[in-house]
Amino acid sequence: QVKFVESGGGLVQVGGSLRLSCTASGFIFGAAVLKWYRQAPGKERDFIARIDATGRRKDYADSVKGRFIFSRDNSKNTASLQMNDLHPEATAVYYCKAASYTTWGQGTQVPVAS
Length: 114
Hints:
The protein has strands spanning 3-7, 12-13, 18-25, 34-39, 45-51, 58-60, 68-73, 78-83, 92-98, 108-110, 112-113. It is built from no helices and eleven strands.
C-alpha cells in the first residue's frame, strides 16, 4: 500500500536550518507529483511546497519561498525539504504526500525555539 515516512525533524533555533526527508513506497514514485504540508499547533494543515515528477518544476507557498528547497531522488524513492532561516511560526508537524493519493505519513515534528 501507499506509505510515506518523514524524518529529520527536531528542535532548531530561530534562523537555523534543518533538512527533512521523505521515503515513499507503494506507487510509481518517479511518476508522482509530491507535496509537503505542515500543521502548526491548533491550526489546519497547510500546503508549503510541490515538486513535479521530474524535479524540475517546484512551487512554494509565499511563507517559505526563498528559504525552503524541495528536491527529490527518483532512484531512491526519496524527497527532501531543506529549510533555511527558520522562523518561530515554522513550528509544526511536517508531512509529505503524493498529489494523487490520500494517504498521509505520521509526520515529523519541528519545534523552532526563539
